[in-house]
Structures are given as structure tokens and as C-alpha cells.
Amino acid sequence: MKYADEFRDPVAARGVLAAIEAAVDAIGATAEKPVHIMEICGGHTHAIFRYGLDKLTPAGLEFIHGPGCPVCVLPMSRVDECVDLAERPEVIFTTFGDAMRVPGTRKSLLQAKSEGADIRMVYSPLDALDLARRNPDREIVFFGLGFETTTPSTALSIQQAAREDLTNFSVFCNHITVPPPIRALLEDPFMTLDGFVGPGHVSMVIGVEPYRFIAEEYGKPIVVAGFEPLDLLQSVLMVLIQIRDGRAEVENQYARVVPDAGNPVSIAACADVYEPRDRFEWRGLGEIDKSGLKIREPYAAYDAERKFGIGYGAGPRFVAEPEGCRCGDVMTGRIKPRQCPKFGTECTPEMPLGALMVSSEGACAAYYQYGGGALEAAE
After folding, report:
1. CATH architecture, domain defined by 72-177+262-314
2. pLDDT of the residue at 325
């Protein structure tokens, strides 16, 4: 890759779009009976709408937006626990910016901060480590959130804290993994999925092998994709060609960035620090076995759940979604954001009701920002 322009070339895009249309025609898909391709990653959802790919592709192809946003799939009970932690006088609570405005039952972290809680936005868990060094009389809690993309940085920070014996540093671990929810979606009898566009950033860490079950057990093609318009168009074409030819394989369109075997240093750090939870609740999907990560016993001193007696160690706590909010249905591809009765009226980026309107990778935010949501709401 030399320049981003190479991946936004309109002439090349027209050629790929013509090939996509030919493949859709060869499959026999129509607007009434389209091919359903799920883009798992929320970053891909935003790219599709930012570049208008949903409008450029033929009517016989329908994008289904997957649960690929870790902020969006976090259940409200975990947000409530973040607020509870942050409001403790001895705690400095640190978090990435996306999580600040996600609503909990009582309030968001941003609202708790406005009321006096010591909550600080950081760009890396290393920032939280530095706070622990500079504030030995305070408990520094880092909100560990994200898919496999962010798990290594948290793991490496915990390892560093252990080397320095920083006992006032801990992680509220909400890291989750991509393959288990895909399996849950494929097991859902109400879902119609013909293929997948796989996440690029996650795959930089784990490689492509963890997706093998999608092709081998369920007979669905998956292509790991980059984030530029031509990346996505080429990946969609690769999925369609597999469907047309009756194949189901794991392919890597993003090979310039994603090694097939992943990143061995990151994989080793995660294996050292984490182990799978027996269960973890996903907004819209319910509890999924082995889908969340928890901190291993050797690093128990850095586990905020154990240190403060919260989370699954204190017993599961279910919190219902706000009345009328259909984030779960959007996240699992059952409805589009505009089909939610709150979209663009009671739920906007300025006053979000659900996490999908808050996150920079949320499907509702993408529809609102690029799909004329604000204009539709005004009408």
C-alpha cells in the first residue's frame, strides 16, 4: 500500500461493482430474495455508509450489521458496575472515550464525572499505569474493554504492573472474543446469513484460523477485509464468488496487514494473562459460553472484580434495556436502525438512549451520521 487513494479509485471501484453485479445475477439473487452478507466489524459498518457502498451495490445484495462493536454489546449491568466503581472516593477510574457516554441504569460515566467522580479518559492502559505510579495513595482502575484488538495492550499492562509490583492498579476486565457470538448467530434459527466479511483489526491479532469453523461446520464463506472502499468491495466480491461456486472457505483479503497466523507476541501475552469465562452476557445475544475473558489467578491482585467484590464474582445481575430501545435487535441483524421507534427522535447522538447511537462504531450512529437520520427525524 502506497497511498490511500489507491483504495478509493473510482475507476477500479466501478470495475469491482460490475463484477459484484454479475456475481449476484449468477447466484440468482433479487431484491425480494437477496444474498445476506454480515459485516461483523462496526468499523466496516461505518465505512459502508461513509462511502455509500450500500447504495452502490445491487439490490440483490443486503448487508446485515453484526455485533462487532464492543461498546455496543456491553450489557447495562456492567456499565452500572463501572459507575459504582468510579464513585468510590479512593478510585481514579480510567476509560477509553467511547465508553464515557454509554447509558447505564442510573447514569453514564460522563454524568458520574460531572457529579464529581474522578473519571479520566485515557488513550492506553499504559496511561492508567502511569497514574498508578504518580498516585500511590489512590486505587487506579482501568476499564478493560474491547475485542481481541485491545486485549494485548491490557495484558501487557498487567504484566508490567506485576513486574513493578504496582498494587494500586487493577483492571475491570470486559474483554470479549469474536468467534463465539458468530457461532451463536449461526445457531439462531431466525437468522439468514449467506456469508461474512470478517474483522480486519481483530484478525491482525488472532489471524484467520479461528474462523475456520464458519466454513467447515456451517458451510458459510468468510473473507477478512480491510477498511477502505475497495477493500470492502473486493471482499464482498470474494464472498459472492465463493457462494456462486458452491464453496465455503476462509480467505484473507487484508493480507497486506493481517498475517494468517496472527501476532504471536500478542497471542502469548493474552494466553498468559487471561482465561475464558464460563459465561458472559452480550447485549442482544444473552449469555454466551466462553465468549468473555477473565484475569488468571497469578494476576488476581490486578483484577478489579476480585479486589472490589463486583461483577460475576458477586453473581450475575441482569438489567433490562430501556423501554422501546431495540439495540439488541439491531445488533443481531433482526432489524435495521430506522425500524427502531426511538431512532432519530428519542435516541440521537446528543441524547442517546442505547449504546448503538453512542459508539463511534455503532450501527445506529452510522445510519444517523451518513444515512440522513437527522433529516428524517426532522421530517
Report:
1. 3-Layer(aba) Sandwich (3.40)
2. 83
Which long-range CB contacts under 8 A does 96-101 form with residues at least 24 apart?
A: 96/121, 96/122, 96/123, 96/143, 96/145, 96/146, 97/121, 98/71, 98/358, 98/359, 98/360, 98/361, 99/71, 99/74, 99/143, 99/145, 101/352, 101/358
Tell the residue number behind the cell numbers 430501556, with chain if given.
322
Domain 4-68+192-200+209-252 falls under CATH 3.40.50.11750:
yes
C-alpha cell at 163: 513486574
Please, are residues 175 and 147 in contact by the beta-carbon 8 Å criterion?
yes
d(C-alpha 154, C-alpha 158), whole Å: 6
Tens of pLDDT, residue by residue over 344-359, are 888 888 777 777 887 7
Domain ranges of the chain: 4-68+192-200+209-252, 72-177+262-314, 327-370
Provide the pLDDT for residue 358. 76
CA distance 230 to 336: 24
pTM of the model: 0.89
Count CB atoms within 10 A of the CB of residue 191.
15
Listed residue (42, 41, 63, 60) closest to 52, CA to CA: 63
Burial of 165 (0-12, 13-18, 19+ CB in 10 A): exposed
